[in-house]
Amino acid sequence: MNTALASSNTNTNPDSLHPANLKTKYTKSIDKTGWLRIKLEPSGSSAYLCEFVKVSILKEEDRTQFIILEGMHKGKTASLAKDNASKCLVDANRGNGSKIIVKVGVRKMWVSKPRHNEVNNQLTATLYFNNEKAIITLDSDVFYTETNPQSRNYQHIIHSKPLPEGTYKIMVPEVPKDSHMTSFYATSPSGYPDLKYHTVWFPIENPDTQNSNFVHVGNLSEGCVTVYELKMWNPLYEYLISNRLDSEAKYVGIIKIE
Length: 258
Description:
mainly beta; 2 domains; 42% strand
């Protein structure tokens, strides 16, 4: 069993701390979303963790309490119902960083059946990962409203453009995206019914766009690395989420666009 060394109050002396061995576990989604809903303590507010986030178990009673060791909630105490904790806080091994390569193709007018036969001028590409490949689009040649509050173009209508060729780091997802943007890719008669994890979008670190580009599933790209071939999203997600590139677990890997 994995253990982690952490400080814990274990006697009655005020502010007295000494190292204690705590069980290390990793988060696992209980459903097809790829997200685990937790309760932050002591506030009781809800939050979400993606899969393969490292935690340390504090107490295992009616609710299992644990410390989150990575990500935006690092250092916070959280809890799960005991039954859920046994399924969602598990032993796991993570890879040391994923690597995906994108070979840029040409512009093509593609019809998307799940998007009511919408036609867009797609910048086609092929994405290679973990001995597999997927058809993707890097840009759909559309106007859109920028929704990233950190962007200099926030709430402005701008025209999409693809990421420049180069190598970028792929960041760990922090919050679920709105399911209305992608759920129809699974529920539409012309979609892919086995599609999972569609609200998990992986940010691509890029100061020029304030990390507004993502690796995600779909048939519309506003400059994101968008997996057009819907059936290839599940294996790509599983490859990315099970890796961490750095000791702080901020990144899942790298992407090279060429």
